[in-house]
Amino acid sequence: MDPQGFVALDAACEGLINEFIAAQTIAQQLGYKSIWGVGEEAGARFTSARELVQIFQQKGAGGPNNAYDTLTDYITAAQDIRALFKAICDEFTRTDAEFAAKMREIQA
Question: What is the pTM for the complete model shown?
Fold first, then answer.
């Protein structure tokens, strides 16, 4: 495999992890958002609006099968894949002099 491929895979994993973290921040904000503007305010005639807000909050963070926890699992998977590719790259670097030279050139 070309050393540049490992560099590209690492960068792609890093970008994906960063995107998941950004989405996780949004999910957490949704979990704590109290005013949604769907008629949930105190004294509202429709209790279903309050229930709907609770569902949205729980789906954002804290409830069963929520977005925040799911994104945590995705982040872990992406980190594991990144670590696997790094281990493979490190082994190639250790055992293949030509690969190691190309990798040093890319990293310089």
Answer: 0.85
* Token pair 């493979």: residue: 88
Q: What is the mean pLDDT of residues 42-49?
A: 80
* Domain encompassing residue 31: 3-107
Question: Cα separation of 55 and 19, whole Å?
Answer: 24
- Tell me which DSSP letter residue 2 carries: -
Question: Distance from CA of residue 76 to its chain's centroid?
Answer: 8
Question: For 23, left (φ over 0), alpha (ψ -120 to 50), or beta?
Answer: alpha
Instruction: Encode 87-108: b = buried (16+ Cβ within 10 Å), e = exposed.
Output: eebeebbeeeeebeebbeeeee
| Helix residue ranges, H only, 1-108 | 3-32, 47-60, 67-95, 97-107
How many structural domains is the chain composed of?
1
How far is the C-alpha of 74 from the C-alpha of 18, rounded, in Å? 11
Q: What is the pLDDT of residue 66?
A: 96
